Amino acid sequence: MTPGEKTRRTDLRDQRRRRQHGCWDQLIAAPLWVAYEANLGTLLRTCDAVGACMAVPGTDHYHRALDRGDTLPRRPHVHWVRRSKLSWIAEQRETSRIVAVELAEDATPLTRLAAARTRTVVLLGHEHAGVPAETWDLIDEVVEIPMVGRGSSLNVAVAGSLVLYMLAGLM
Ligand SMILES: C[S@@+](CC[C@H](N)C(=O)[O-])C[C@H]1O[C@@H](n2cnc3c(N)ncnc32)[C@H](O)[C@@H]1O
């Protein structure tokens, strides 16, 4: 392609994604407490972009939210959590590292977060209440995204997307 020659966006996408693939079940975004449909839709698109799967409660609310928010040609695999969230996390912990995205005193700053080397489940908190305290004993690492502004936190879909990109090794 010569300079000045315009590349169509679809051609660029094909050039850059020679190894296009779905999710591998090694990185699982778990917005188990995220309530707003727009945030769930945004996180689903990030999952597709980084090759992550998603885990959400198998309730009507989450089915509806993903149906409405899904603008993808093919949806990443979704684990429908049909029992207590705590027992699901405890079961995942037998085979995976549990990472919570949250503001916490002993958190790893995002800048020091390494790409995931083993199966990793990423917990994301409720828009108002955050990640519930009863999960803390099940969490292996907390990741916090540094902020210098006056707001107290980021939008959960933005926070989750940044962490998923880092864990996927794409940033
Ligand atoms: C809007 S925040 C919840 C704020 C809530 N008022 C609190 O104090 O816990 C929603 C979720 O986004 C994520 N989040 C937002 N900002 C973050 C940050 N700077 N670092 C890590 N996680 C963040 C966390 O998962 C959090 O539970």
Describe this structure as you would to a colleague.
With 171 residues, this protein is α/β, with parallel strands linked by helices. The chain has one domain (21-167): Alpha/beta knot (3-Layer(aba) Sandwich). Helices cover 31% and strands 17% of the residues. It has five helices and seven strands, in the order αβαβαβαββββα. It has helices spanning 9-16, 37-50, 60-69, 85-93, 156-167, and strands spanning 27-30, 53-57, 78-81, 97-101, 108-109, 120-124, 141-144. Strands 3-2-1-6-4-7-5 form a seven-stranded parallel β-sheet, with helices on both faces. α2 (37-50) links the parallel β1 (27-30) and β2 (53-57). α2 (37-50) crosses α3 and α2 (37-50) runs parallel beside α5 (156-167). The longest helix has 14 residues, at 37-50. The protein starts with 8 loop residues before the first helix and ends with a helix. The model has no long low-confidence stretch (mean pLDDT 91). Bound molecules: S-adenosylmethionine.
The parts where pLDDT drops under 50 for at least 5 residues are: none
CATH topology: Alpha/beta knot
Order of helices and strands: HEHEHEHEEEEH
Q: Outline the biggest β-sheet.
A: 7 strands, parallel
CATH class: Alpha Beta
Beta-strand fraction estimate: 15-25%
**Would you count the extended β strands for me?**
7
Question: Tell me, what's the shape?
Answer: globular
Helix content percent band: 25-40%
Widest sheet: strand ordering: 3-2-1-6-4-7-5
Global Rg:
17 Å
Mean pLDDT: 91
Which hetero ligands occur in this complex? S-adenosylmethionine
Structural class: alpha/beta
